[in-house]
């Protein structure tokens, strides 16, 4: 038996070597798609005669780009969001899931080995297979069966017997056609895609915190303007009431002044509601309950200013920086590998199986040399008729690969559009803001003149009301534009893919205090 076992092992080893040498990999090999990058970012609208105060420059992007705003409160929030944002945590867990799935796929490359042991007490049927097996009575008698045998057929009752066995089982599916290797390749690419999705979630969260924070400070600036204009409108009302009491003007001016005051007051509640909503939005981004950040953020502060020069990197770096581009490329890689998995299923599958261990009717004999049993050999599975399932699966995988290629192409194109639109918005909004600064200055001067002329009796009150309305409108527009400039810089850095390289922990759950 030992010689037989050695011969079987030798044959199995030879078969294994032959299959390893003859194995191949089905399906197309993945090739990174080529795409051309423009020579410059600055292909937007015609350059203005006067350049904006803050200009983009071709220089490496700061990893912690939000620090360019030089706002300690914003920096504190950004450091917290990387550790506390629930979307980032969920994406990190999905990445862990993908790594586990990769481990499952890799396990198929290796043999499986298991141990077993069992004991059964069995009573065979008198009318079953033992009834026609010659010598069955003798076998039964060894376990205490009673009866007579006529020509090898038992005429008595078959007694119950004990069966003890133990051993090892091994199975290995030989990857002849590379289907398992392609599945590992696909799982690896899917894990890379999940990793990039985590980076994309982090980038999005960082940008949303900065945008909401900037909008919050802009809203608080609008609130301050509204309160300032309430004071102005109240002064105008007092002036008209004094003039009406002196018979210099009519009650019409008093009514108009009162209406102007009420109109200005009516603008405050929506701004307060917007302020509360933005604070709650920031709380949600940090995984906190409503109003959790009110004590920190309710005190008004200026809108974070933009720096004179904004590093925007180089066009050739965009694909490396944008996690959505790298995610789309990894998904294309996975879809390409899945074609090989589908093609490998058309061919015969070879498995090597083996078992070894003792079996005995009595426990005391279980460890005798004569109780040993073994089985080794190959098993081949050949697909003959699958009702078109294999062909349809292959067509599906090829279609999914073509879709992934189109998705990658669109993602790259969308990235260029995002950058171009963000650059244009950043530059043009600065021009608008500068014009509004001049408009506010002129409206202030106009209001001062109108109030003076009205007090002197050389101008009517409608002129004062018009200048008050104009000043309020331009002040609010300036506050919004100032916030938009900073928010557009945030959008620009998001479009450039900046910030995902930050070394902030994404698995830490405690907030940075």
Structural write-up:
The longest helix is centred in the last third of the chain and has 68 residues, at 389-456. Helix 3 runs antiparallel to helix 5 and helix 5 (179-245) packs antiparallel against helix 12 (461-496). The chain is 58% helix and 11% strand. The two termini are 73 Å apart. The chain has a domain at 49-110 and 177-226 and 263-348 and 389-496: Outer membrane efflux proteins (OEP). Strands 2-5-7-8 form a 4-stranded antiparallel beta sheet, covered by helices on one side. It has a two-stranded parallel ribbon with strand order 1-6. The protein is of the alpha+beta class and 513 residues long.
Q: What's the topology here?
A:
Layout (H helix, E strand, L loop, with lengths): L1 H21 L32 E3 L14 H13 L1 H22 L4 E11 L13 H6 L7 E2 L2 E2 L6 E14 L4 H67 L5 H16 L1 H18 L8 H4 L11 E3 L6 H4 L1 H22 L4 E12 L11 E10 L7 H68 L4 H36 L17
Parallel strand pairs: 1-6
Antiparallel strand pairs: 2-5, 3-4, 5-7, 7-8
Helix pairs in contact: 2-5, 3-5, 5-6, 5-7, 5-10, 5-12, 6-12, 10-11, 11-12
């Amino acid at each position: 038996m030992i010689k037989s076992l050695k011969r079987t092992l030798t044959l199995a080893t030879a078969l294994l070597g032959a299959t390893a040498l003859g194995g191949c990999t089905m399906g197309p090999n993945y090739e990174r798609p080529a795409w051309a990058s423009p020579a410059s970012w600055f292909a937007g609208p015609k350059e203005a005669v006067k350049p904006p105060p803050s200009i983009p420059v071709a220089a490496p992007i700061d990893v912690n780009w939000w620090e360019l705003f030089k706002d300690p409160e914003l920096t504190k929030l950004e450091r917290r969001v990387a550790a506390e944002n629930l979307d980032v945590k969920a994406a990190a867990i999905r990445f862990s899931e993908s790594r586990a799935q990769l481990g499952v796929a890799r396990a198929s490359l290796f043999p499986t080995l298991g141990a077993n042991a069992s004991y059964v007490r069995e009573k065979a049927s008198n009318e079953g297979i033992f009834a026609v097996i010659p010598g069955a009575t003798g076998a039964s008698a060894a376990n205490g069966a009673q009866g007579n045998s006529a020509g090898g057929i038992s005429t008595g009752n078959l007694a119950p017997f004990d069966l003890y066995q133990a051993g090892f089982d091994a199975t290995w599916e030989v990857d002849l056609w590379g289907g398992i290797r392609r599945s590992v390749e696909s799982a690896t690419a899917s894990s890379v895609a999940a990793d990039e999705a985590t980076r994309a979630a982090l980038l999005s969260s960082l940008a949303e915190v900065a945008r909401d924070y900037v909008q919050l400070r802009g809203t608080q600036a609008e609130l301050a303007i509204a309160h300032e204009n309430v004071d102005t409108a109240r002064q105008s009302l007092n002036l008209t009431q004094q003039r009406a009491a002196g018979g210099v003007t009519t009650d019409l001016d008093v009514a108009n002044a009162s209406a102007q005051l009420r109109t200005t007051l009516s603008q405050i509640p929506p701004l307060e509601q917007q302020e509360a909503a933005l604070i709650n939005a920031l709380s949600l981004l940090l995984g906190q309950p409503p109003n959790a950040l009110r004590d920190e953020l309710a005190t008004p502060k200026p809108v974070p200013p933009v720096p004179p020069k904004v590093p925007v990197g180089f066009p050739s770096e965009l694909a490396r920086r944008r996690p959505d581009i790298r995610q789309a490329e990894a998904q294309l890689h996975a879809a390409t590998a899945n074609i090989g998995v589908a093609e490998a299923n058309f061919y015969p599958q070879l498995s090597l199986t083996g078992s070894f261990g003792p079996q005995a009717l009595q426990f005391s004999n279980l460890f005798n040399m004569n109780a040993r049993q073994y089985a080794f050999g190959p098993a081949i599975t050949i697909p003959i008729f699958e009702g078109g399932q294999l062909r349809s699966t292959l067509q599906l995988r090829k279609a999914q690969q073509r879709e992934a290629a189109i998705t990658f192409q669109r993602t790259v194109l969308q990235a260029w559009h995002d950058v171009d639109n963000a650059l244009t918005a950043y530059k043009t909004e600065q021009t608008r803001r500068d014009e509004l600064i001049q408009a506010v200055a002129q409206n202030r001067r106009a209001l001062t003149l109108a109030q003076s002329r009205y007090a002197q009796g050389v101008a009517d009150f409608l002129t004062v009301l018009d200048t008050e309305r104009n000043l309020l409108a331009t002040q609010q527009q300036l506050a919004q534009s100032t916030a938009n400039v900073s928010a557009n810089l945030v959008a620009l850095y998001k479009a450039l893919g900046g910030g995902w390289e930050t070394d902030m922990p994404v698995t830490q759950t405690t907030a940075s205090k």
